[in-house]
Amino acid sequence: MDLNPPPGENYGHPRICLFHVLFKGAALAFYILSALFVNSFVIIFVVTVLLAALDFWVVKNVSGRILVGLRWWNEIDEDGESVWKFECLDQESMARINKKDSWLFWWTLYLTAVVWIFFAIFSLVRLQADYLLVVGVCLTLSIANIVGFTKCRKDAKKQLQAFATQTLATRFQSTIQSAFSVV
After folding, report:
1. Average pLDDT in the 160-182 region?
2. How far is CA 71 from the centre of its chain?
3. Cα separations (Å) of 16 from 75, 81, 104, 145?
4. How many angstroms separate the CA atoms of 115 and 177, rounded?
5. Of 51, 10, 21, whose CA–CA distance to 33 is shortest?
């Protein structure tokens, strides 16, 4: 993964990028600043988890679809088994995905989880089990999106490879058939 955003390219969806970062930042900022301004753990828990849940929803249902062209969900089938479902844009549309949007999406997705892990370690060191609970919920939501979108990206790459293989095989077959039909 490249550390630097692609040069010379503007964001394709600046509002979506703003909200993608805003909800992540709001949950983190409230968690950090709440210790200074709020005395009630219940308020800190509820508001932080609510902001993290809003971030989860925005990433999963809006920014993931628009910024990287991926969508995932999990279903339970009749046998009680968990089944992951993935959707991605077609290959032409995936090729048009803005690289800066994609870079921002993936980096903020992973960086947010790293920050929550840092807060979890900090809570463990300070022996604050209640705050560890808040961080655990937020980290779980963040990791759920990472796992979902990473699996979705791998599935999209498999679909691209299968499409390319099928296209090449069809092209090769038609070339062979046309070569022998000329004779």
Report:
1. 56
2. 9
3. 27, 34, 11, 17
4. 58
5. 51
Q: Is the pLDDT of residue 162 over 70?
A: no
Quickly tell me which residue has 């490879």 as its tokens: 161
Helices 129-182 and 41-58 meet at what angle, rounded to 10? 10
CB of 45 within 8 A of CB of 2? no
Cα–Cα distance measured from residue 66 to residue 17, given in angstroms and rounded to the nearest whole number? 10
pLDDT per position as a tens digit, 126-152: 898 888 999 999 999 999 888 887 877
CA angle at 43 for the pair 24 and 33, rounded to the nearest 5° = 50
Residue given tokens 């509002």 in the structure block: 15
Across 122-127, average pLDDT: 88
Predicted confidence at residue 29, as pLDDT, reads: 94
Q: Across the strands, what pairs with 74?
A: 84
In the block, residue with structure tokens 């390219």: 9
Whether residue 101 contacts residue 11, with contact meaning beta carbons closer than 8 Å, is answered with yes
- The pair of three-digit structure tokens given for residue 63, joined into one six-digit string: 């920014």
- Tokens representing 138 are 């937020």
Burial of residue 138 (CB within 10 Å: 0-12, 13-18, 19+) is: buried
